[in-house]
Amino acid sequence: MAFQWPIRVYYSDTDAGGVVYHANYLNFFEHARSEMLRQSGFEQDELMQQGVVFVVSNINLDFVRPAKFNQQLVVDTQITKLGGASMAFEQQLLDQDGQVYCQADVKVVCVDATSFKPQPIPKSIKQELARVS
Fold first, then answer.
1. Residue partners of 74: CB distance under 8 A and separation at least 6
2. Rg of the chain (C-alpha set)
């Protein structure tokens, strides 16, 4: 089951040619993962207070076609692996016809908010994400 987060390409997301600047795809994907966590009942500011932070440890992007100013798109996010201290995601930026604009394989690690050393994903989060993925 995939989580889908709609986006619109704003002028500030684009370069002088009206095409999404390559680094902004990272923002689209990050926002979708954050909203997936929020929809599952976990607010990142509350997790930080509990000493839990999620950080990207690896990302691989494939730019398929240029997204342009004012397009309405959706970020499709799927958890492909849920490990002890890490999660792997497959994310795609799609239009309403299912055409892929960019895709990413992302590895996220759960770390301690103070030391930034890896720690196990809290059981409550792992159970909920396993249920929705």
1. 4, 5, 6, 7, 93, 94, 95, 96
2. 15
Report the predicted TM-score, pTM, of the whole model to 2 decimal places: 0.94
CATH number at residue 120: 3.10.129.10
What pLDDT is stored for residue 1 in this prediction?
62
C-alpha–C-alpha distance, residues 20 and 10, integer Å: 9
110-121 mean pLDDT? 97
What is the total count of domains within the chain?
Answer: 1
Cβ count within 10 A of residue 88: 15
Starting at the edge strand that comes first in sequence, how are the strands of the sheet with 100-112 ordered?
A: 3-8, 72-82, 86-94, 100-112, 52-63
Count CB neighbours of 110 within 10 A.
Answer: 21
Distances (CA, A) of 52 to 22, 106, 131: 29, 19, 20
CA–CA gap between residue 133 and residue 79 (Å, rounded): 6
Reply yes or no on whether 15 is catalytic: yes
Considering 13, 15, 97, 112, which one is annotated as catalytic? 15
Structural domain for 93, as ranges: 3-132
